[in-house]
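Q: Please design a sequence for this.
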């Protein structure tokens, strides 16, 4: 087999670019300017939101990091940023709905936030709360934190479930999360291999198992949206967004 035929054999067949209006809402991004490692200026946020709109999204629920070591964002800081960004969207006549929640790092400070009822949620009465875990090791008090959320009638959503490599050899952990009442969110760009082949493999498995509840861009900057355009042509992405359990369009 020649060099080129080997390469072409490896390539997945691409489909037409999926219409993202099927999803309606994106539920994971970092677009409030200057408060985390996402968009840094109002201008940058606006440019990204224009691409969301062009890609077919009708609504963006943006989720700044809340993490005690780096991003000590409060509901006041997030809502203040949201207010300014919405004002700019309106003045520029960009037709996209914008809401904010947060992406909470599972750590002791988050348990305090839960205790004090200072949690930002999305999805109205469903009270979805986006949580993320360390990429290095499973947080010690993960189960206690999930219990505390459920106990206060929040509905935990685990961000980019495919990216926790310490679970890749024990995917029963994913099933355990479902059994504990956690909804699962997949980063769309994981399907492209942008985070590496192992993460892509797990992402594909999650799609085949039909256990993803919510999909998100996790957009921090324009490169993530470039990757999104590639993901839109993948058969696996087409398969994912046609699954009936995906919640995005109801938000
Ligand atoms: Fe994120």
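A: Design:
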């Amino acid at each position: 087999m020649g060099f080129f035929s080997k390469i072409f054999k490896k390539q997945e067949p691409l489909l037409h670019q999926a219409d993202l209006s099927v999803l309606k809402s994106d539920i994971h991004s970092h677009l409030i300017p200057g408060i985390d490692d996402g968009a840094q200026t109002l201008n940058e946020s606006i440019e990204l939101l224009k691409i969301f709109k062009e890609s077919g999204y009708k609504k963006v629920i943006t989720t700044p990091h809340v993490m005690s070591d780096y991003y000590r964002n409060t509901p006041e800081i997030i809502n203040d940023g949201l207010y300014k960004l919405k004002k700019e969207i309106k003045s520029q006549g960009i037709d996209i709905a914008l809401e904010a929640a947060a992406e909470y790092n599972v750590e002791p400070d988050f348990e305090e936030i839960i205790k004090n009822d200072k949690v930002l949620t999305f999805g109205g009465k469903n009270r979805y709360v986006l949580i993320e875990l360390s990429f290095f090791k499973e947080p010690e008090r993960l189960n206690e934190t999930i219990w505390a959320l459920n106990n206060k009638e929040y509905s935990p959503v685990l961000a980019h479930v495919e990216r926790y490599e310490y679970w890749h050899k024990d995917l029963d952990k994913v099933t355990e999360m479902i059994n504990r009442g956690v909804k699962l969110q997949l980063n769309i760009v994981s399907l492209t291999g942008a985070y590496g082949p192992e993460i892509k493999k797990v992402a594909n498995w999650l799609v085949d198992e039909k256990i993803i509840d919510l999909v998100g861009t996790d957009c921090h900057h324009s490169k993530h949206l470039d990757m999104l355009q590639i993901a839109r042509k993948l058969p696996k992405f087409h398969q994912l967004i046609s699954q009936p359990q995906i919640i995005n369009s109801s938000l």
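Q: Thanks. Anything notable?
A: Residues 28, 30, 103, 159, 218 surround fe (ii) ion (CB under 6 Å). The CA atoms of residues 231 and 237 lie 7 Å apart.
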